[in-house]
Design goal:
Order of helices and strands: EHEEHEHEHEEHEEHEEHEHHHHH
CATH class of the largest domain: Alpha Beta
Distance between the termini: 62 Å
Number of domains: 2
Helix content: 25-40%
Strand content: 15-25%
Radius of gyration: 20 Å
Shape: globular
CATH topology of the largest domain: Rossmann fold
Length: 330
């Protein structure tokens, strides 16, 4: 198939592009050209936010599948619709499980769970993109499929409550500095390695009967946040880590931006039913445990000291929250 990835060089899309090429598909990327893909492909350079740029870049081209990894709100969806209509047999919106009402009313969460995240602006914007494109599917037969991943990670990511990007968490552990976990750390959470996600994604590309439908693509392996931090420390070879347990409400009061991340997502149970995608894509089976995945991540960072970047703003979030809690508790 001829497949266009809008984005194509990010945490998620890179793995998807690699697998598509391995399976013999002809892959094209559309992005601003600021990052280079690590797989053979054609690249169309355009800034989707520049008026008419995306539509002009696709002029005269037709694809079997267009997958949009960087559609974040209704405005992005409208631009994609105008640029992609009549140019593909299937348009895949990469949405998110953050669109669901939080906390979930029933576990595991299915695609039928009610939408409307009161705590996450990110989730509400993604929901607006879904609704806009579903309307175009209903009214104009726009060939839409929706994918809702949860927390995905690659060798470049170290999952934690603040941010998965960079080496900040690992550096704190190595230096003996404390890290925090929300509440008692026993909240259930699902982490999906991007290579496992890519199998579900690739199987959905061009799949008959998938138009107008939403699919969750996540792992079945559920962890607690305590386990996530413990496995990260073990992968680093750190024998002892001070993990401070702090109530979610206190964290969000001290650093309000954490409300979107925690109340809107990570502080809620993340357990998902993926039977719908498994019925459509029989070879989708998440096999990479977090123990394996986090060791690959640490090995990637250790290969080159230049990768071990500590973000001072993220580091400050850890310090601000932990210091405030220790002062409050004394």
């Amino acid at each position: 198939m001829k497949i266009l990835l809008i984005g194509g060089t990010g945490n998620l899309s890179q793995a998807c592009g690699e697998l598509l090429v391995q399976r013999g598909h002809q892959v094209t990327l559309l992005n601003r050209g600021k990052s280079k893909a690590e797989f053979p492909c054609e690249v169309l350079q355009a800034d989707r936010n520049a008026p008419g740029a995306m539509k002009q870049a696709l002029d005269g081209r037709v694809f079997d599948v267009i997958a949009d990894f960087i559609c974040f709100d209704e405005k992005d969806a409208a631009i994609a619709f105008e640029a992609c209509k009549g140019r593909c047999g299937q348009y895949i919106l990469i949405s998110t499980t953050v669109v669901y009402d939080k906390p979930p009313r029933v576990l595991p969460v299915t695609e039928m769970a009610p939408l409307g995240n009161r705590f996450s602006e990110y989730g509400r914007k993604k929901e607006a993109a879904e609704r806009f494109l579903l309307d175009k599917f209903a009214r104009e037969k726009f060939p839409l499929s929706i994918i809702r991943p949860s927390h995905t990670y690659s060798e470049r990511w170290l999952p934690n409550p603040v941010t998965s990007v960079g080496y900040t968490l690992a550096a704190r552990m190595e230096k003996g500095l404390p890290v925090f976990v929300h509440d008692d750390g026993q909240g259930l959470w699902t982490l999906t390695h991007v290579r496992d996600f890519a199998v579900g994604f690739a199987g959905l590309c061009g799949a008959p009967g998938s138009l107008g439908e939403a699919y969750q693509i996540t792992s079945d392996m559920v962890l607690t946040w305590n386990q996530i931090l413990r496995e990260t420390a073990l992968a680093l070879g750190v024998s002892s880590v001070e993990v401070v347990q702090i109530p979610t409400d206190f964290i969000c009061e001290v650093v309000p931006m954490m409300s979107d991340k925690l109340r809107g997502d990570k502080a809620c149970a993340g357990v998902f039913d993926c039977s719908k995608i498994k019925a459509l894509v029989p070879d989708f089976d998440c096999r990479i445990s977090f123990r394996q995945g986090i060791r690959e991540s640490i090995a990637w960072f250790k290969e080159d000291p230049a990768r071990q970047i500590v973000n001072p703003e993220h580091d400050q979030v850890f310090d601000t929250i932990i210091n405030a809690w220790k002062k409050h508790s004394n």
